[in-house]
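Throughout our pipeline, every protein is held as a single compact record rather than as scattered files. Nothing more is needed to write down the fold, since each code stands for a local backbone conformation. For reference, a complete record is included directly beneath this paragraph.
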Amino acid sequence: MEGGGSVSWMKYGPVVSLFVVILALWFRSPQNEDLDDRLDTVLSSLLRAEQKVGMSNVVRPKVAVGFGGCVDLIVDGVSLLNKIGLPPTDQPLHHDYIENAEQLAQSFAYFFAPGAAAERFMLNDTLFSELVEASRDLPGNRWSVGGNAPVMAGRMATEGCDVLLGGSFSPDFTDVLSQHITVAGNILDEPDIHLILEYPSGASWGHYTSRRANRYIIHSDDHNPYLDSMEEFAEKLGDFKPDLLVVGGLQMMDNFPFQSGERDALFSRLADLLSSSSPQIGVHFEMASFVEESIMEDLLHYVIPHADSLGMNEQELPNLLSLLKGSNITVLSDPNPRVATVLDQMREVYRILNQRYKDANDGKPLTRLHVHTLAFQAMIVTRGSQWKNTMSATAKASLTANRHVCGSNDIDPSKARLIMDDSFSVSRQEGSQRIPLQETRPVSCWDEEDYEICVAPVLVCTEVYQTAGGGDNISAAGLVLQI
């Protein structure tokens, strides 16, 4: 009987399989069509929102961006670790900096599984050199201009700005920059290399599986922590007369082995530069992966009080908020937070920093806060401040997320998906308003207290080309329409 049953199944199996496929297509096709139509509608609506504000062809906005830069060597992270024979660890651990291969494995595993972005300084020059050499002939590797400042400068030049870039680079590096970028800094013989260990969603390393696409960055950089272009950058600022001053790349100073007093002196000079700029010039500070508590305290003392605008991701927002509330740094947070959670955290950061400004009666109030996550973009902008076009800027930031990660200016809906909920609460407080995602008006904006909030869904790229530099491109694109 069993044998007969098997023969009978094999005889009719192909027919049954075909019938199952036809049934699946019959039931799934309308649903897929609806999904495709929805993505098309959201995309066309975001594009319309972005295009509501055109850049003037007559006067290009002027943006000064510091500090530093490097050459990124981008590789598949798991392939590199396999190539050097580094086995998956049974102990995912957070390390402030990396001294040996075991710590690298532990630190990579710690951030890889949740799919959280991280950046660490490697004290071990020999190990770092070995990793770079192993990466050079790894299939699919890529070299690109790296560092927060050059990446933001490049995006702003592409979007129609003239840029003054503060950084020390090799001649080869400056040759590939846009003609709309002027460099202020020293000339280096060799650029610093940063290793970008990328991985897609669902990647496996031993028994670890990544929950989302992201990257783990390591460097052994001994130029950028010293902000050695700051003096020449400051000298050129006066004649350049920027509309906006952007500061990034300060995470290079995190856990760097400075001599006693060196870092304080650098931060003090930076504070002087920021405070001496014209009050009419907007100042934006782009956050990054900071893990050393003392440097976060330095940022709160020397940098953030002079910034009108802050940009950060879903890891950096709770990190900053935790410190503002007197708690320890949060090294790892939810990589896919809900909209309500992020908005509550943004309101609290906005409130605390502006209260600190009032109490100190010094510096600048915070009038713009932009948080970029995988699923959505969120902005808080003070009504009546110098920042304009918030709705269009939020849409542009959302579109730029897809363009950068997919590696194409043309957005293909077949390579994208919406992971933001169909509706979201504006707060985690009980009874809070829920806002539905409207395909024809996907950017939701509303007023609260003295500010406007805008939230836009991201068409999340499903065929990832590159995640590194995503936040810098997104923040820069959002700023361009607001100056």
Observations:
- The CA atoms of residues 319 and 330 lie 5 Å apart.
- Residues 1-18, 20-26 have pLDDT under 50 and may be disordered.
